[in-house]
Design a protein that fits this description.
This protein is of the alpha/beta class and about 280 residues long. About 45% of the residues lie in helices and about 15% in strands.
Length: about 280
């Protein structure tokens, strides 16, 4: 298959991203390697392990340790302002417990774009892996730092939070970078539309020094819904191929039930397998 000028776009969605992990497991088994991958939040984590060629690492990291208090702890919200143990996830796990294959990752010439949100401007910022070097994990952490339950991340003289706040499905960035076709993995079913942020009043109080962030949170549902309409338009014009669950996933953004997580992973794998023939036709067209 000729997959030049074809991007792989990975939505986030917190623990719903385990569904995407299952899809990428199937892709890796088929040795389906895209030359350009862009991800947001958990989608960015999925991108990292896809490029490092670690076929089940996302499954191991996000399911094996999900009940470990170093990974998720509601008590930690009150003690340090974080639900997820970011140092554990982005330092201890990749460097000690479940080593990330940095060698393969850096030697892979696939373009890997991580999306973050600038808290001052409220705009999306995109970093390609080769411009980050040893700071890659820090930017990946920023992309996964959800508002209200994570601390902002300082990098490059800027302050960042979750990339999904400003660009949940970064297909426009992929197109701008020259990709005429895109394979887009979503974690919500067809027909889903995001509702306005329910905590916007709290956001205005919590982030008084980040007016751009508050504005982005307030507009997030509009931006998301417009992008979904756009990717469906691209699909109708055979410029995009969308993989997404047929029905709502059994998990929300935060999930600690391992059985539900395994089910989502297996569902992603099955959906990729069931749609592989159609995907091949799209890529061969």
């Amino acid at each position: 298959m000729d997959i030049k000028n074809t991007g792989l776009v990975l939505e986030g969605g917190g623990m719903r991203g385990v569904y995407t992990s299952g899809i990428l497991h199937f892709f890796m088994e088929k040795e389906l390697w895209f030359p350009y991958v862009i991800g947001v939040s958990m989608g960015a984590c999925n991108a990292a392990n896809y490029i490092s060629r670690q076929i089940e690492r996302n499954k191991i990291v996000n399911i094996k340790y999900v009940n470990d208090s170093r990974y998720i702890s509601y008590l930690r919200i009150f003690t340090s302002g974080e639900l997820f143990g970011m140092d554990f996830i982005f330092n201890t796990l990749p460097n000690v417990l479940e080593p990330f294959d940095f060698k393969t990752f850096w030697e892979n010439d696939t373009k890997c774009i991580t999306t973050v949100t600038d808290c001052i401007s409220g705009e999306a910022v995109y970093y390609e892996k080769n411009e980050l070097g040893n700071d890659y994990m820090r930017v990946l952490q920023a992309s996964c730092s959800l508002p209200f339950i994570s601390k902002p991340v300082e990098y490059d003289n800027k302050t960042f939070l979750d990339g999904g706040i400003s660009d949940s499905i970064p297909v426009c960035k992929s197109i701008k970078d020259g990709n005429k076709r895109n394979v887009i993995i979503l974690t919500q079913p067809k027909g889903y539309r995001k509702k306005p942020e329910s905590l916007i009043k709290y956001a205005k109080k919590k982030y008084t020094h980040f007016p751009g962030l508050v504005k982005a949170l307030n507009n997030r549902h509009n931006q998301y819904n417009e992008t979904v309409d756009y990717v469906e338009h691209l699909q109708e014009n055979q410029e995009a191929f969308i993989l997404r669950p047929v029905n709502p996933l059994s998990s929300g953004r935060i999930e600690t039930n391992k059985n539900k997580l395994y089910q989502m992973y297996d569902q992603g794998y099955k959906d990729a397998s069931d749609n592989y023939g159609a995907l091949c036709k799209f890529l061969e067209a």
